[in-house]
Amino acid sequence: MRSILIIGAGRSASSLIRYLLSKSESENLHIVVADLSLALAEKKTQHHPNATPLALNIFDTEERKSAIEKASIVISMLPAHLHIEIARDCLEFKKHLVTASYISDAMQALDEEAKKSNLIFMNEIGLDPGIDHMSAMKVIDEIRSKGGNMLLFESFCGGLVAPECDNNLWNYKFTWAPRNVVLAGQGGAAKFIQEGTYKYIPYGTVFRRTEFLEVEGYGKFEAYSNRDSLKYRSIYGLDDILTLYRGTIRRVGYSKAWNMFVQLGMTDDSYIMEDSENMSYRQFVNSFLPYHPTDSVEIKTRLILKIDQDDIMWDKLLELDLFNPDKKVNLPNATPAQILEKILSDSWTLEPNDKDMIVMYHKFGYILNGKKKQIDSKMVCIGDDQTYTAMAKTVGLPVAMATLLILNGKITTPGVQLPIRKEVYQPILKELEEYGVIFNEQDMPYFGYNPDLF
CB 3.0–4.6 Å: which of 152, 174, 329, 383 could bond 178 by disulfide? Predict the structure, then answer.
């Protein structure tokens, strides 16, 4: 049997493992699920006859190399910074590699050697990055095949809570990596291009510059700018495009409310707060406010944020129990961002019966035969439950499908790459539709950012 080694059995691996196990009989596959926790690997394999759970410490070189040498192909579902040693072992033992992570400089440096060995190191084949690349390139290639020239490309994606489980004032719950949510927008100004002009939004105002999106059947959303929208300009062949913008989707009102934390300084991850372990939630808030002999923490908060007590922004803060003097942080040597994450996790953790939702929205503006046109492409995916979430489905299924295509010789281009070639995106997008990941494309009038000209 052909052996697929999956390293990492975390939340993102559930749909991936289920898919490959469902194909194991017809495709002659044996799935080895390796994780530091044998119990977790056993849970994910569910005693399937074509699966083997394996306890694996990736920092044990001999143990790691032994597992990789026995595999026909390797999938790494580890955090991005841990892929590189796996990749080097794959080069040594001549194994293809698939990951859902961004291509790091260290991974890209292996490109030439991978090509020499005729190995495929497929990266960025999850949701975002992944499905965003594939669904975008499909439409861009179709426009180009008709002779059209791209004028505008905007791409938005967000992990949200499903409408039937949306029951807090923020219209948001953590569906993935809470730390990434707290640190969103940091690390430099957001950078993009509109109508041929470079634009920059500093972190302090990124959550007050939003775009609005309408998705039929799901209502209105907003999106704030990603840090670097221009990263894929050359990769997508859009060097001459007038507008290129990528953003993160939230429900309307989230960004304005989140900006309160930014303005207070609660999202800062650059310093440790003194005696954070014994600090109450109320003391945490008060740490960012000026001293006043008589004003309460609540009054000082409203004054500094310029919000009234009947403002919905105030209700959103109260809902988080931020001013509770009895709740303790219980985190030693914590940064403000870490403490904020802890506080938000009290309110924003999915309940056992909650479902998550992925929303993706692309806009393609182009000129064809002298006429300006636009295509809007929208996708909504709802999770099944807490194990087979929409996030796990949209991250794991493309990884699994790409792995099988490589194993069966349907994807043949060697080297370190992302899924922008037709041999990758055409079969995967088609198969994803069978699992409810469907893009609805609609012709729209093109306005760009100068509607008065049309």
Answer: 174
Q: Residue 81 CA to chain centroid, in angstroms?
A: 16
pTM confidence score: 0.91
Question: Which pLDDT score is estimated for 454?
Answer: 45
Q: Which residues contact residue 261 at a Cβ distance below 8 angstroms, ignoring those fewer than 6 apart? A: 267, 340
- Residues 170-210 have pLDDT tens digits of 999 998 889 999 999 998 899 999 999 999 999 999 999 99
Amino acid at 360: M
Phi, psi of 209 (to 5 degrees): -120, 85
Provide the residue type at 270 as one letter: S
For 225-259, b where at least 16 C-beta lie within 10 A, e where not — what string? bbbebbebbeebebeebbbbbbbbbbbebbbebbb
DSSP 352-397: TT--EEEEEEEEEEEEETTEEEEEEEEEEEE-SSSSS-HHHHHHHH
Q: In this predicted structure, what is the pLDDT of residue 338?
A: 97
pLDDT at position 451 is: 60
Could you tell me the CA-to-CA distances from 51 to 14, 31, 32 in Å, in that order? 14, 5, 6
213 vs 192, 222, 257, CA distance in Å?
A: 18, 6, 18
* pLDDT of 80: 86
Q: Are 260 and 313 in contact (CB under 8 A)?
A: yes
175 closest CA partner among 187, 165, 190, 183: 165
Closest Cα partner for 378 from 423, 440, 290? 440
Strands (E) across 59-100 are located at 73-76, 96-99
**Cβ–Cβ under 8 Å, residues 31 and 9:** no
Task: Report the pLDDT averaged over residues 340-346.
Answer: 96
- Number of C-beta neighbours around residue 85 at 10 A: 18
Give the pLDDT confidence of 378-431 residue by residue, as tens digits: 999 999 988 889 999 999 999 999 999 999 999 999 999 999 999 999 999 999
DSSP 335: -
Contact (CB, 8 A) for 339 and 281: no
Residues in the chain: 454
Tell me the mean pLDDT in the region 215-219: 94
DSSP 3-state percent helix, strand, coil across the chain (nearest 5): 40, 25, 35
Residue with tokens 């306890």: 55
Tokens at 321, concatenated:
């129990």
What does the block give as tokens for 451?
A: 């509607």
pLDDT digits (tens, 9 = 90+) for 131-148: 999 999 999 999 999 999
> Among all chains, which residue has been given the structure tokens 């594939």?
134
The three-state secondary structure class of 63 is helix
N- to C-terminal Cα distance for the chain?
Answer: 61
Alpha carbons 77 and 386: distance in angstroms, whole number: 18
